[in-house]
Design goal:
By secondary structure, the protein is mainly beta. The protein is built from eleven helices and 40 strands. The chain has four domains: about 160 residues, Immunoglobulins (Immunoglobulin-like), CATH 2.60.40; about 300 residues, Transglutaminase-like (Coagulation Factor XIII, Chain A, domain 2, Alpha-Beta Complex), CATH 3.90.260.10; about 110 residues, Sandwich (Immunoglobulin-like); about 90 residues, Sandwich (Immunoglobulin-like), CATH 2.60.40.10. It is an enzyme of class 2 (transferase).
């Protein structure tokens, strides 16, 4: 007997937060009274559905899911997959009408994305739900099904529904047609899109990794088996989201998934996967150092539903990494040597000394770990300003509570580097882990605290992860912080203090910003391939002479706001005369940004300045996009269905270099099949012309789309609407 959920005056339907529960779906949904002569067998009936779900078959091959030890169909979102439906007779599109239904959870609703009806259409839109017939033979049809690039991650149930005049006939519940849908780092529209195939191989498909431990003077390493493709691991990972009670409609969002997973990986406050123990007594459990991988831990938790004993930071991080890679979120395990555990997130570790100069352990709450492991997950951050997507810190080790639970992240690595710790989630805590100053304090006789000394270089000396494609160590300290002791590093710290210390209400630490100097900067509009300048302006509105130590950082970012790398660093000292404004130009040469430029030619600038006389910080940031020249598409002659017409594509190379191995693509549904052409070279400033003959098949308003691709230049597009006349 199914127990009915308690009624709740606020919502008509209970929360839907279990992928495991199902609802009853009627096989015959009548529209009204059914006449006596009605026989469902007279109508189109589904005899069989072939999911092409074997590892060697098309779906798992194309979706990079052939390694999963799981008999069901597993696909990645935003990419089409094939299924075949066998009917009891040939399908007649004129009279027969059927559609697909994907359902997840117990209370499927269309507006929540948990009930997805898919009607047939002639053309699939990339990244949107749809289905089209690709092949008909005898009683069978082949469908290409496209899932949404933002759809829920989980296990869906599939039904085929057939319309009859008296009601809808559905296939019966058949678990063999269940379809798992995962994140898709190969799909540009997915929030976890990663543009480098070697990195996808490592961060999504590699099921073995390396954990660096020991300490800064004695680095040790060990292998860890993630095992994300092993039997039942995918189901165990989906179960974790049920355990965390993440509502199904939120499971398409990697930010939400990471946040709830960082809580459920540890057993504090939610009976999560692993119980931590740091006291060297591991009664009734496995010592953390004994685990060699994640599989045993996840499978034990999946079957017992009780926390597995015991873990320490690398165990939490190893299991978290399995979870992320299994669902398709690119992830890597990070080790931070000399990691600060800042109890009150004031960006300094307060070590209290007694009269003899020894640390007073009763008063001192902060600590430095020899090393600490956490994870980075790769995703866009549409909830933050541009520039903060890319690697995000997530940490499943229970250290401090965040919004009332033991969890941490996702926090943008780029925001941590530049000290912009105001952006969610938990950036001040992570910033402190890699950057805190150690402050030694002594209680004076009158009760005040006297700062005895400050150590600014001890914490976060080295941050590492496994190399891509090899087993070596890759240092990524520079992703988190500027060179120790450099101007930029102090600027970033003071920026962080400006944002982080706001939380403190104590009067004497309250922060007074510099109000009598203003800073602004402008980026000159520029076409890709040309030099341009950034102009920084200071307005000194006081009667003081000031000098400002200024740092400009230019970063190449993905169109989603994810930083790829820094291409420009420029520091200078600015003299600011009283009551006057001063401008400073920084020239950005095309040679500085071209080699690393990404698809959409977006650049992102940070400018940070410290007024040396007052120690106050000014910080601003801006994103800019270089203009990419477009392709021009033209048509010649009349455009009539069934008659030959001519299409030309033109492009002028804007760069000061020859473009090599250029691929042009042209497509237009109903007008022409996708055509490709390779050009060996397009010299600088020269124009390429490609003419194509085609016979449009369908009348009406159609779109021609062209793209050009080569290593030096991407995201060059052109499109043209064409009206095809009836013959």
């Amino acid at each position: 007997m199914d127990k009915k959920p308690p009624l709740n005056g606020r919502r008509a339907l209970p929360l839907s937060n279990s992928n495991d529960e199902e609802n009853e779906v009627p096989e015959m949904e009548a529209f009204g009274l059914i006449p006596r002569g009605f026989n469902p067998k007279d109508y189109l009936r589904v005899v069989d559905i072939n999911m092409f779900k074997e590892p060697h078959e098309v779906n798992k091959q194309q979706h990079h899911t052939d390694k999963y030890y799981n008999p069901k169909l597993i696909v990645r979102r935003g990419q089409s997959f094939q299924i075949q439906i066998d009917f009891n007779r040939p399908y007649k599109p004129e009279t027969d009408q059927f559609w697909l239904e994907y359902l997840i959870g117990r209370y499927p609703q269309q507006n929540k994305g948990t009930y997805i009806p898919i009607l047939l259409s002639d053309v699939l839109k990339p990244g949107e739900w749809g289905a089209k017939i690709t092949h008909k033979e005898n009683n069978s049809i082949r469908l290409s099904v496209m899932s949404s690039a933002t759809c829920i991650i989980g296990k869906f149930r599939l039904y085929v529904a057939v319309w009859t005049p008296f009601g809808i006939l559905r296939t019966h519940r058949n678990s063999a047609t269940d379809t798992y849908i995962l994140f898709n780092p190969w799909c540009q529209q997915d929030a976890v899109y990663l543009d480098d195939e070697r990195e996808r191989e490592e961060y999504v498909l590699n099921d073995i990794g390396i954990v660096f431990h020991g300490n800064i003077n004695e680095i040790k390493l060990r292998s860890w088996s993630y095992g994300q493709f092993e039997e039942n691991i995918l189901d165990a990972c989906l179960f974790l989201m049920d355990k965390a009670e993440l509502e199904l409609s939120g499971r398409g969002n990697p930010i939400k998934i990471c946040r709830v997973a960082s809580a459920v990986i540890n057993s504090r406050d939610d009976n999560g996967v692993i119980a931590g123990s740091w006291d060297n007594t591991y009664t009734y459990g496995v010592p953390p150092s004994a685990w060699t991988g994640s599989v045993d831990i996840l499978l034990e938790y999946y079957s017992s539903k009780q926390p597995v004993r015991y873990g320490q930071c690398w165990v939490f991080a190893g299991v978290f990494n399995t979870f992320l890679r299994c669902l398709g979120i690119p992830a890597r395990l990070i080790t931070n040597y000399s990691s600060a555990h800042d109890n009150n997130a004031n960006l300094q570790l307060d070590f209290f000394l007694d009269d003899e100069g020894k640390v007073d352990t009763k008063l001192t709450k902060d600590s430095v770990w020899n090393y600490h492991c956490w994870n980075e997950a790769w995703m866009t951050r549409p909830d933050l300003p541009v520039g903060f997507g890319g690697w995000q810190v997530v940490d499943g080790t229970p250290q401090e509570t965040s919004d009332g639970m033991y969890r941490c992240g996702p926090a943008s690595v780029q925001a941590i580097k530049h000290g912009h710790v105001c952006f969610q989630f938990d950036a001040p805590f992570v910033y402190a882990e890699v950057n805190s100053d150690i402050v030694y304090l002594r209680r004076a006789n009158n009760g005040t605290q006297v700062i005895e000394s400050v150590d600014t270089t001890h914490v976060g000396q080295l941050i590492v992860t496994k190399e891509v494609g090899r087993d070596g160590m890759m240092e990524i300290t520079e992703e988190y912080k500027f060179q120790e002791g450099s101007e930029e590093e102090r600027l970033a710290l003071e920026t962080a203090v400006m944002y982080g210390v706001k939380k403190q209400t104590v009067q004497d630490t309250s922060y007074q910003p510099q109000t009598d100097v203003e800073m602004e900067f402008q980026v000159q509009k520029a076409v890709l391939g040309s030099d341009f300048k950034v102009t920084i302006t200071f307005m000194n509105k006081s009667h003081n002479n000031y000098t400002a130590t200024t740092y400009l950082s230019g970063n190449i970012v993905f169109y989603t706001g994810v930083t790829k790398n820094e291409f420009k660093k420029h520091s200078f000292s600015a003299k600011l005369k009283p009551y006057s404004s001063s401008t400073f130009d920084v020239v950005i040469k095309s040679s500085e940004y071209l080699s690393d430029l990404l698809d959409q030619a977006s650049l992102h600038f940070f400018v940070t300045a410290r007024i040396n006389e007052t120690g106050k910080i000014l910080a601003i940031q801006k994103a800019t996009v270089l203009e990419i020249p477009a392709l021009r598409i033209k048509t010649k002659g009349e455009m009539v269905a069934g008659k030959e017409m001519s299409v030309t594509v033109e492009f002028t190379n804007p760069l000061k270099q020859t473009l090599e191995n250029v691929t042009l693509r042209l497509e237009g549904p109903g007008v022409l099949r996708t055509m490709k052409k390779e050009f060996r070279q397009i010299p600088a400033n020269s124009t390429l012309i490609w003419e194509v003959k085609c016979i449009p098949s369908r009348p009406g308003l159609r779109k021609l789309i062209a793209s050009l691709n080569c290593n030096a230049l991407r995201h060059v597009y052109g499109e043209l609407n064409v009206q095809i006349q009836k013959p």
